[in-house]
Amino acid sequence: MSLQLFWRFLLVGLLAFGGGQAALPLVERMAVAETGWISPRTFADAVAFGYATPGPVLITATFIGYHVAGLVGALAATLGVFLGPVFLAALAAQQVQRFAQNRWLRAFGRGAAPTVVGLLGVTLVTLAQHTLTGWVYLAMALVAAGLGLTTRLNPLLILSAAALIGILLGP
Known about the structure:
By secondary structure, the chain is mainly α. It has helices at 2-15, 20-34, 40-52, 59-92, 96-100, 103-131, 135-150, 155-169.
């Protein structure tokens, strides 16, 4: 199982154009729909955990790996998801200036960006279906979005307050 976690998350890491958030739809499809490793609710918890910890959103891979195969699964998924990008970044570091001027690469970026936004929108809808299960949670989401868009509050503070409210409300 750990080898399967490693290979699947290696693929996610290699296809994660646009960073960790852009890969969330791919991770969701793989871990929930294709393999059934976790439920949609557990995926939502994994994403929340990823946002509540310092570091990249794809810490979600570690959460999923641990859920599926314990510590060995967590290590396999984490190594898999980060190994490809680190290797590619090291290879590309010397060529950055040359690639930055490439018209094909710039065109790819212009086309990929709206696609990433669309995929994030799909993930948002899926997460909302499984987490906004009552008016209290819907209100929390709206307040958090409002605070995030209109204030300079640290997102970690907003997340911490929401987590505290969730703990107080219970399961």
